[in-house]
Structures are given as structure tokens and as C-alpha cells.
Amino acid sequence: ETIIKLLYNIGSRKEVDQYIRHFSSVQSHQFAVIKVGGAVLTDDIDTLASALTFLNRVGLYPIVLHGAGPQLNKLLEDAGVEARYEGGIRITDEKTLEVARGVFQQENLKLVEALERLGTRARPINGGTFIAEYLDREKYEFVGKIVGVDKGLIESSIRAGALPILTSLAETRSGQILNVNADVAAGELARVLKPLKIVYLNEKGGLMHGKTGKKIDVINLDEVRGCSFFFCF
Q1: Rounded CA gap, 178 and 9, in Å?
Q2: In what order do the strands lie in the sheet with 163-167?
Q3: What is the pLDDT of residues 117-130, one digit of tens each?
Q4: Rounded to whole angstroms, how far apart are CA atoms 25 and 192?
């Protein structure tokens, strides 16, 4: 109600009604893919949950994929594990992968619980969506390059009336879990689901180019296949 009132203050009632009808008329899973940075989950989880709840209450099912970079860095530091990067990509050894799996599950559950406290059904999806191959096993160890997306769990979640909340871990076809870049994963989801919008929420206020360090103004999803253009979580 508060958000609708705000919209009415920005535009006429007719304009707002047309906007809501337009987005409510698309297939639920084609509304938006929203990638949420780990810092947002730490600093603004209640605001995020309220915004997602609003979208859901007007009949939309945004597909949420989150990172957990700051949380992972803190746990690795506490465990005495030095974070190593090569070309902006986190080198993920067995210990780092083990910690990453735990922190992703923890942060995923935090967002699901925040949504459900507001009466919004949500489903944690910690795997089974992204199919990957090793990016360069010798160089990056357990880091993957996404080669396929299985949207079955996402569609099942929406049919059940729950928002799908995904982590950015992937699996090889043989079942090995790999760390993949969350920004790239969101792009791959958008390529398959073809939503009206793809939204990136992070503390930097945008996507940063992994080589130039500058904010990216326009994204061509056909170019978001590798991990080299973005900072990994």
C-alpha cells in the first residue's frame, strides 16, 4: 500500500494502474531476474524482503539470485584462509568451497525467512539449476563456467506459489559443485527465461568491469558468458 501511494505521487493513477497491469499480464516467471549482492543481505534485508513482497502481492514472481561475498570473506578470514584472486576471479580450493556452500545456505535461508515473516511464500534453491564445466581447473580449481540452465525447480516453485530464491553454486554433469560468478549466473538465467527486466542490486550501485574497474552502463547478455568481465563474489 505504501509503495502504491508513492507511485501515485510520482504519476497519475491511470499511469500507475497501466504500469501494474502491464507487468501483471506477463507470465509470472518472465517478469524479472533480480541479482542481489551479499552486502544487501547484510545491510538491507528487511527493505529487500518488503520490496519483493510488494511485487508478489500484485501477482508477480521475481526470480532472485544472491551472492554472499562479504560474508564468505569474513568467514575465511576467521578461519585463517587467505582469499586468492587471479584476474578478478576467486581461486576456490576445497576449503573455500566448503565454507562457501555453508554461507550460501545460511544467507539463502535468511532471505527466505525474512520473506515468510511478511507472509510471502519463498523456496530456497541451493542447487540443481546451473550446469557448469571447470573454467580452468589447474588455475582456478573449483570455479565453473555455466554451460546450461535447468529451469525446472524455478517453474516448480512458481507453480507452488513461492518465490524462487537461488544461490550461485553450480554442478558439473557428474555432480561436482563449483563456484560460479553470481552476476554471470543472473545473466544466464535471463538468457533462458527471457524476463522483461534483469536487475542487479549491490552496494556499488552497479556492475563493475573486472578489467577497467569502471561501472558498466549497458550490458549485452551475449557477452556475459565468461567470468573475465566481472568481479567474482
Answers
A1: 46
A2: 122-125, 163-167, 63-66, 32-36, 197-201
A3: 999 999 999 999 99
A4: 20
